[in-house]
Specification:
Elements: H1 12-36, H2 38-48, H3 64-91
Helix pairs in contact: 1-2, 1-3
Length: 93
C-alpha cells in the first residue's frame, strides 16, 4: 500500500466473532488432546514455554464442567479482545 491510500475500516463485530470462534476451536482441540494424550500434550505445551515443566501447574483430569467453563471464558475474552483490537485499529485511521 502506498502512502496516502485509504484503507478500509474493520467491522468490529466480524473481527470479534472471528477471534472468538477461532479461540473456541483451539480450546476444544486442546481439551481433546489433554483427554486423549495427556502426557504428550503436556510435553508439547512445555515447548511453548521454553521447556518449562508445566505438568506441576496443570491438571490433566479435565471435567466436562471445567471444560465448558473454560470454553465460555476463552470465547468471551477473545470476543472482547477482537472487538477492542478492531476498535483501536479503526480509530488509528
Amino acid at each position: 500500500m502506498k502512502g496516502g491510500e485509504k484503507m478500509d475500516k474493520l467491522n468490529t463485530k466480524n473481527v470479534a466473532n472471528s477471534l472468538a470462534i477461532v479461540s473456541g476451536i483451539v480450546f476444544i482441540v486442546c481439551v481433546v488432546l489433554i483427554i486423549v494424550i495427556p502426557e504428550a500434550t503436556m510435553s508439547l505445551f512445555g515447548y511453548l514455554f521454553h521447556g518449562l515443566d508445566i505438568s506441576k501447574i496443570t491438571n490433566p483430569n479435565v471435567s466436562i464442567v471445567s471444560g465448558i467453563i473454560g470454553l465460555v471464558e476463552i470465547v468471551v475474552l477473545a470476543w472482547i479482545v477482537g472487538w477492542l483490537f478492531a476498535t483501536i485499529y479503526n480509530k488509528m485511521k
